[in-house]
């Protein structure tokens, strides 16, 4: 998919946190997410909430109920901007074309699809991990999900050693992601250049996402899986995503697995994992040396 024509308007006020909410036509999901954002702590930092509404692929319309939810929402901690895309852009356009930070800013951005709710402590965690690890070239970004799906050998989730507060894993983690800014924009530039080659396939032998992407290729629906490009890019550049490693897969986001591109109606209203509702000071003891897990969940020595 082409994303070059998506030009987010600049925002000239200083921002510490930019929340990018990616939505289409699930008004109730957006309402639940926005309400959860109002329960979070922001420490008096400057916060900008941007809601990006995609248009229907069939008729080019904006969903009116979703727009009204965004328009009528009062964010207690900062400014709100609503962006109605000028055309259908799909998942690629939503993820790759909506963050336009000031070059001189040090803002943190977090991407949230509409069926994700946040923990009150999501920003506390992001502030800490960005400060600790942003200079590392091998950190692609920070997932807010407590779940790390295993990509190789057998289905299920991977877990780090119980002694670890967080781990690095070879996945993108799209259930709430805060990119490492420098590495993210290098990835976007690589995608723009590489995707122009119609013969290129971002596949990694032996992992489950590659098999899924191959099925999408046969069905002509690869526009539904942007994550395969990021998985490939991080693999060839030896980058990882940082995940929390809290007990019982507790996360900084919950994903509601609602009906849409990737879930059927029978999956709806089942959250992926419980939200973190109580902060423990030990979560601030971030390690200097991070455990790295491979696609099969085994530690990379």
Automatic annotation (TrEMBL):
Q: Which InterPro entries match?
A: Nucleotide-diphossugar_trans
Q: Which SUPFAM superfamilies match?
A: Nucleotide-diphospho-sugar transferases
Q: What is this protein called?
A: Uncharacterized protein
Q: Which organism is it from?
A: Pinctada imbricata (Atlantic pearl-oyster)
The UniProt entry, under Gene3D superfamilies, shows: Spore Coat Polysaccharide Biosynthesis Protein SpsA, Chain A
């Amino acid at each position: 998919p082409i994303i070059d024509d998506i030009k987010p308007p600049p925002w000239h006020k200083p921002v510490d946190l930019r929340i990018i909410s990616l939505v289409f036509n699930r008004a109730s999901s957006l309402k639940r997410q926005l309400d959860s954002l109002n329960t979070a702590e922001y420490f008096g930092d400057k916060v900008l909430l941007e809601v990006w509404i995609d248009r229907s692929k069939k008729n080019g319309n904006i969903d009116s109920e979703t727009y009204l939810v965004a328009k009528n929402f009062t964010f207690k901690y900062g400014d709100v901007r609503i962006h109605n895309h000028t055309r259908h852009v799909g998942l690629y356009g939503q993820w790759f074309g909506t963050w336009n930070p000031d070059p001189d800013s040090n803002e943190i951005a977090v991407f949230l699809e509409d069926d994700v709710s946040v923990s009150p402590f999501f920003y506390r965690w992001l502030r800490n991990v960005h400060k600790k690890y942003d200079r590392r070239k091998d950190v692609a970004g920070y997932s807010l999900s407590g779940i790390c799906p295993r990509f190789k050998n057998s289905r299920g989730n991977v877990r780090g050693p119980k002694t670890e507060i967080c781990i690095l894993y070879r996945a993108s983690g799209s259930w709430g992601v805060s990119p490492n800014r420098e590495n993210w924009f290098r990835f976007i530039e690589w995608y723009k250049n590489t995707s122009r080659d119609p013969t290129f396939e971002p596949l990694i032998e032996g992992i489950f996402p590659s098999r899924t992407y191959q099925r999408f290729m046969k069905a002509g629906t690869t526009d539904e899986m942007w994550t395969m490009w990021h998985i490939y890019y991080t693999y060839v550049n030896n980058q990882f995503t940082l995940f929390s490693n809290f007990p019982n897969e507790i996360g900084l986001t919950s994903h509601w697995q609602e009906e849409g591109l990737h879930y059927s109606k029978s999956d709806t209203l089942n959250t992926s994992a419980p939200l973190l509702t109580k902060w423990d000071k030990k979560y601030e003891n971030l390690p200097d040396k991070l455990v790295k897990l491979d696609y099969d969940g085994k530690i990379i020595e």
